[in-house]
Amino acid sequence: MCAGDGQSRDVEYIKQGTGSTDAGGTGAALKREAEERAKVGARPGVGRGTAREAGESPYIQVDRVLKRCQYSQDALIEVLHAAQETFGFLSEDTMTYIAHQLKLPLSWVYGVASFYHHFNLKPQGEHICNVCMGTACFVKRAGDIVEALEREFHVKAGETTADGKLSVNIVRCLGNCGLAPMVILDCKVHARQTPETMLRNCKEAVEG
Questions:
Q1: What is the DSSP letter of 54?
Q2: Beta bridge partners of 182
Q3: Is residue 198 within 8 Å of residue 182, measured between CB atoms?
Q4: Which residues, in sequence order, are bridge partners of residue 159?
Q5: Biggest distance spanned by C-alpha atoms of the chain
Q6: Tens-digit pLDDT profile for the chain (208 aa)?
Q7: Tally of CB atoms within 10 A around 159
Q8: Which of 84, 79, 109 is closest to 96 using CA atoms?
């Protein structure tokens, strides 16, 4: 198998989901298609203060970061952060666009986005509850917390409630085992939680 064959597969993989497999599916055409598809799943209110409020294309924010970082492949995580701030999550089309701009295989971009718990590959709810399932948290009943949230809010881990109010996610070890079991609700750390205390915290958040 020669290197050219592998490169061709990478280019074809990057184009998957763009609606085009010819040269016209790259560059400006790819950007337009990605923008239209990403708008469908964009969560209202995400990216306050961004160009979206001024009526500009939300991809402008991503382009600015790409330009500032001189399209360096080492800036992938920073670009993904900018994209998530703009759209609220990382859709396949958004990752395809970033992969194209940084000349990376889509498989690489997806691998990075799916590895770090900060990145969301699905639209998220108004409130986000991330339950740590590292060893220490698991031993101290983190699994019971997840089950209690699933029963109370009728939602499966990794999904969002039907009303869009709450997303419940399981994340890898958050690196602070002394606070186990630890839950992050709307970017606020809740230490040494029980199913009862976390249910109360989530209800208060959802009910406002």
A1: G
A2: none
A3: no
A4: 168
A5: 59
A6: 443 444 444 333 333 333 333 333 445 555 565 555 555 444 433 443 333 444 455 678 899 999 999 999 999 999 999 998 888 789 999 999 999 999 999 999 999 999 988 898 989 999 999 999 999 999 999 999 999 999 999 999 999 999 999 999 998 888 889 999 999 999 899 999 999 999 999 999 999 8
A7: 15
A8: 109
